[in-house]
Every structure is written in C-alpha cells, then in structure tokens.
Amino acid sequence: MPALRAEKICKSFKRLFQEKKVLFDISLSIERGEIFGILGPNGAGKTTLMSIFSTLIRPDGGSLEVLGRDALRDTHAIRERINISSGNPNFPWSLTVRENLQHSAMLYGLSGRSLQRSVEEAISAFELGPQSDAKFETLSTGQKQRVSLAKSILNRPEILFLDEPTSGLDPEMAMKTRDLIKKIYQEEEITVVLTTHYMPEAEELCDRIAFLREGRLVALGTPGELKRALQIGHRIFVEYDGEVDPMKLRIIPGVMEVKELSGRVEMVFDHSGRAVSSIIKAFEGADILDIGIEEPDLEDVFLELAR
Amino acid sequence: MSWQGELHKVLSATYKNWIISKRNAFTLFELVFWPFIGLLSIGLLTRFLELGDDMVAFVLVGAIALSILQISQIDVAYILLFDLWSKSIKQTFVAPVRGYHLVLGAMLFGVIRGVAVFIVLAAASSHLFGFDFLAGGVATVIIFLAGTFLTAASIGMVVCISILLFGQRADVAAWTLSGIMMLVSGVYYPVSILPGPLQILSKSIPLTYLLEYYRSAYGYGDHQILLGIALALLYFVASLLILNLAIERARSTGMMLRLSE
C-alpha cells in the first residue's frame, strides 16, 4: 500500500468573477519510506498540491488516498498521522518557542509527559534551546523555520510534508536542516514529501521527483531517470593551443552541441557512447592546456522542463 | 484518541488565549478599564437624571450584560482573530482539531473572563450605586450568565464564519455585532419602544429574554426565560454546525491558504 496515491487531482481558485485553474489532473503515487520531491518554477502549483496532500485544502476533482484512507472523507484520522512544515512559517507572535510547540502539541491531542517529552525532543533536535523562551516575533527567519520543522515532528508523523524547508536559511543551517531531515527520515522510517527550489537539495535528498509546470505534472522519476529521459548530456570543455577543426568535433557521434571560443571549446555530449576518446583525438596537433567534464545536474533538468 | 487527547485539543484554545491575554496590556483594559468606565458613566447618568432605584437597576443590568457579552464573544472570535493577525491559521487547521474543540476551549476562557467582569462590575455597582445584583437570588444570576455566555459564543462564531467566508476584512464583525445586539435587544431601554420591525428582530435574540429575566427580579414584569435559553441553545448549535461548514468551505475555496499569506 503506498503512503499516498493521487488520481486526477485538479484544483482551481475563484476570485470575484475570475476562475484560475492551478492543477490539472495530477496523478502520482508515493511509496512508504520514500523521500519524494515536488519541483517546479514559481506558480507551478507545488504549494497547492502540498496543501491538498496534507488535507489543508480540498481538491475540486479526483481522488486522494493517504495512508490507505480516503483523504476527502477521513481527513481527521489522516491529520492525526501526518504533519507539515511550511516555508516562511508563522505562529502566534507573542507566544514563545516553547509555548508555540506546547500549543501545537495540544492541537494534536498530546498531553502530560508525552507532550513535554515531544516538545523537549523537538527543541533539542532543531537546536532551539537558547531560543526556547523567546517570543516567536523576535526570532530570525532561520529560527522561525526551525520552529516550524520542530512543530512538524511533534506527533511523530508517518508522512512529513515539507514545503520549502530550507527557505531563508543560511547555507550552514540549510545543510544542518538537510542532515536533520535525513536523520529523522532514517530514525523514524517515515515518508517525506518536500518541495524545494534548490536543485542540489532535491538531488541530495529525494529518491524520486515530480516536476510541475503550470499546474501539470510534466515528469516523474528518480533524478537519474529524469536526466536520461531528457537526454541532457554531459558538458566537456577543452582549452588548447594550436589549430583545431571544429567540423571534426561536430561529426563525432554523441556530440550534441559545440560552442567555440578563443582557445576554448565547450561541448555537450551523450556520455553513454565513446565520445570522450574521439573528442580528445580531434585535438591531435594541438596542445591541450586544460580539460574538464561536468555531469548534468538537476538544475539542467529543471531548466529543460521549465522551458 | 483518548479522552485526555480530546480534552487537550479543547484546552489548546484556552491555553493560547490565556498566554496571549496575559502578555497583552490591552487585556487589562478589556477586562477592567472599559467595562468599569462604561458602568461608571451610565451610573453617573442615572444620578444626573435622578432615576429611582428600580430604573437604576434596569440600566445597570443592561450595562453589565453588554460588558459580559462583549468580553466573552471576543474570546471565541479570538479562535481565528489571533491566527489571522499572525497569519498562522493553517497551523491550526492542518492539525486534527474540529470546530467544537476550538469553540469550547475559547469559550471556557471567555466564561472565566466574563465571570471576572461580572464580579468587578457587580461589586462596583453595588458599592457606588447601591445596586443589589443578587435581588433575584444566585440561581437567577447563574441562569442569566449561562444564557449570556451561550449567546456570546454564538456571536463569536458568527465572527469566525464571516472571516472564513469573506476574508480578513470581515474581522470588523468582531466589534459591530455586539453593537447591533445593544441596539435591538433592549440593553438600555425596553424593546417595546423600538419600531415594529426591530421589535420582531428583538424577539429573535436571546439577550432580550435574558435581560427581561434578570430585570424581572427588580419589578419589571414577566419573562420568558425558557424561550430565551432555548433560542440561545439553538443558535449555539446552529452556529457550531455552520462554523464547521464554513471551515470546510474555506478548505474548498482556498481561503484557508489566503488567510495565512
């Protein structure tokens, strides 16, 4: 049984007399124990989809099963077993970090020692000890983000939804947060669904990724599958001294693109073939001063899909 | 979910209102200053107009009732207002809580504050204007307060419903609804002096009957307290059901997301 199964989810928002459709027939399945990424440019519908998955809002059509239950009917039972952390989070301003977490834990029905233990563990996990008695309004963006993450583990959720979890964090804290997500994921054996703009983060964390563009699911797979499916080649650059015939480079099997600069050639090629040795052979008669190969990353996939 | 879990979901709203209130100097004004100033002004007016004891009682009952109503209804409205102002509504509604958890929790805090306001105003009116607030007995006070708290909770829920249906600008309802109540339910005058259509409206408002009930102890004729309590209960249940529908509608329209932005 998958952790989440969506069939033809669609959603539109009405404002005055205008209706804007933001999701079109999204169908996907997320397996238990998976870290699943939802990527896409601004306005692609990521947050709306995340809000539907976490039962905060209802879809207009389609069906959604979360943890084996109908998410349009059994919302209350599902909410007991999931949690969400949003980017740029807000909590009641005049409550301290600890009070906000205590209040959130009460909303999940925690009481007595289990409430206190959950709050203390969350404060400790996200290194919020020094700020625990500070009012939420006095925290930095990064600290607010950590409060939101701490809140999201209070009820030991089976599915954790993370909407832009490292948004606004400095690089060190973003790295720590990614490590914490991995740690929680490994220790609690939970399913994580996350949205992010930061491609290295998705590549580092996600087992599979769904790409959304203008409310439509345009690609779904592992990072490797997506790169292969889109035939995004490796990049090679060669700096040289001497004469090289660019035509020789263009006819090499697997070479997809050649860009000539003064004393430097940049090429995109299909790494699955034997293009590299042929490329180097084409530089016979010239001195190769420097050479480098870059693998395609998720950023390239994103740019390709966002076009 | 165990009964302790259910109880803690209810108490979550009480806890939040308590923490926010104790940090806010404004709360002291809400609880003591404005009700006291209102009562003092009305009481001094009765002195200036040289009203008899029965008329003083009539007016002071209205002043006390209005203060209790305002303080208790705002506590229920705070379910959404605090979250609305801090843009944190989705933190509450992504959690497994239902409308009644939030309403009962906030109402509990509203009852505590309402009783505190009653004690302050009853003591002040007794000391300053010789008003015997126990003329009808303790049971009369308890029934009057219970009906007022139920009515206040319904008004607070209507504020929440308005916000969920119409967005942030509807928060103005929090301060206008009790004003309308003051006008039509005879807080400072008998409803018989209202124009015909407003009299019909006043008959549909529980506060009208609650005021008549309390005032009957001071010689102001008959009362229909059972009808008043029945109406208060009916509106309370209806408001709770409509609040749940409004929450679900806000999930469908996306208002739940917009209120958090």
Automatic annotation (TrEMBL), chain A:
GO MF term set: ATP binding
InterPro entries named in the record: AAA+_ATPase, ABC_transporter-like_ATP-bd, ABC_transporter_ATP-binding, DrrA1/2-like_C, P-loop_NTPase, Pterin-binding_dom
Alphabetized UniProt keyword annotations: ATP-binding, Nucleotide-binding, Transport
Record SMART domains: AAA (SM00382)
Protein name per Swiss-Prot or TrEMBL: ABC transporter ATP-binding protein
Domain Pterin-binding: 250-307
The family this protein is said to belong to: Belongs to the ABC transporter superfamily.
Entry annotated with the keyword Nucleotide-binding: yes
ATP-binding recorded as keyword: yes
PANTHER family assigned to the protein according to its UniProt record, in alphabetical order: ABC TRANSPORTER ATP-BINDING PROTEIN (PTHR42711), ABC TRANSPORTER ATP-BINDING PROTEIN NATA (PTHR42711:SF5)
Limits of the ABC transporter domain: 4-239
UniProtKB/TrEMBL annotation, chain B:
Official protein name in the record: ABC transporter permease
Tree of life domain: Archaea
InterPro entries reported in the protein's UniProt record: ABC-2_transporter (IPR052902), ABC2_TM (IPR013525), ABC_2_transport (IPR000412)
Pfam families registered for this protein in UniProt: ABC2_membrane
Sorted UniProt keywords: Membrane, Transmembrane, Transmembrane helix
Transmembrane is among the record's keywords: yes
Keyword Transmembrane helix found: yes
Transmembrane domains' residue ranges: 25-49, 55-81, 102-124, 136-165, 172-191, 225-247
Membrane protein topology class: Multi-pass membrane protein
